């Protein structure tokens, strides 16, 4: 996982056959994923979500946010007898890693193994988490925004690939933001919180180099590999936060990110919800008010490339 070496290279290094290495990998990843997931990626309680929301406000200045959601394509070799099920819009075969991340770039929910041809929004609506949200069992009750009497629901923040709903915030379109400065401010504040998901995927690929190349394993084994990597990522983040007390990520800027794997999903969010428009507009008004504005937002949104 850490080196991304091929099975052939490992076979030469350890003097054992590729088929036996494959069997070892299947057993190890299955054991790691089953044992580590309850410890390192447990299902969050409402108390956990309240703590995550407080961290998002303190560190990324987005209130009532309980996670940043995003998805990435994990490149694989074409599984046998699957046709075009795993063939994505970038013209290669992949499975999808859909993840929700907290303010410290740690995974709090992952959905792994969806077909590469599917989009973020469709995968999310089929997940077990979405069913809990629909039944009203996941999010805490609405809460007042900091320094305000306005009460709004707790939300996830995502990009244009997700459908706008009361509990799912996505940015305004470029055309809308270009013609309305308040919407530009909202997009900046949302992107500031949402980038924790991008940071998490970047850290994951830099630590586990297996994501730089197509993975030559069965899809079931790839699912366990990705889940194990997410668990180990959280373990390393916990140790990093304990040691440094610093939530900022550290990238190796000289390292070129993977260009054929860990790429975003197609921007197709589907139909929006009327209540979602209402909640988003309330957040927009709050970010442009004296109670919710941050001192640097005007400077950041007015910057132009030179």
From TrEMBL:
One molecular function GO term is: nuclease activity
- Main subcellular location of this protein, as a coarse class: nucleus
User: Where is the protein situated, by its record's location annotation?
Assistant: Nucleus
Keywords assigned by UniProt, alphabetized: Hydrolase, Metal-binding, Nuclease, Nucleus
Domain named DDE Tnp4 is located at 69-234
- Any Pfam family: DDE_Tnp_4
Q: Tell me what this protein is called.
A: DDE Tnp4 domain-containing protein
């Amino acid at each position: 996982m850490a080196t991304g070496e091929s099975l052939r290279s490992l076979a030469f290094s350890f003097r054992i056959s590729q088929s036996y290495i494959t069997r070892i990998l299947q057993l190890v990843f299955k054991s790691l994923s089953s044992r580590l997931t309850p410890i390192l990626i447990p299902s969050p309680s409402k108390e956990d979500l309240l703590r995550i929301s407080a961290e998002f406000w303190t560190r990324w200045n987005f209130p009532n946010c309980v996670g940043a959601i995003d998805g990435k394509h994990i490149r694989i070799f074409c599984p046998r007898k699957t046709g075009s099920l795993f063939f994505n819009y970038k013209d290669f075969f992949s499975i999808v890693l859909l993840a929700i991340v907290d303010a410290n770039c740690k995974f709090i929910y992952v959905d792994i193994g969806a077909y590469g041809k599917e989009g973020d929004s469709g995968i999310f609506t089929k997940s077990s988490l979405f069913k809990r949200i629909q039944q009203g069992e996941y999010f805490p009750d609405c809460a007042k925004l900091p320094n305000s009497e306005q009460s709004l629901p707790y939300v996830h923040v995502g990009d244009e690939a997700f459908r706008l709903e009361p509990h799912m915030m996505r940015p305004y379109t470029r055309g809308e933001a270009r013609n309305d400065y308040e919407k530009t401010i909202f997009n900046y504040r949302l992107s500031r919180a949402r980038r924790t998901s991008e940071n998490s995927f970047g850290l994951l690929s830099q630590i586990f180099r297996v994501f730089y190349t197509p993975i030559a394993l069965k899809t079931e084994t790839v699912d366990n590999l990705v889940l194990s990597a997410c668990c180990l990522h959280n373990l390393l983040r916990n140790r990093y936060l304990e040691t440094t007390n610093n939530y900022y990520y550290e990238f190796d800027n000289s390292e070129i990110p993977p260009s054929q794997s860990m790429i975003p999903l197609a921007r197709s969010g589907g139909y929006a919800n009327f209540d979602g428009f209402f909640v988003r507009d309330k957040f927009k008004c709050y970010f442009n008010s004296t109670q919710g504005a941050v001192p640097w937002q005007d400077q950041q949104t007015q910057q132009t490339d030179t």
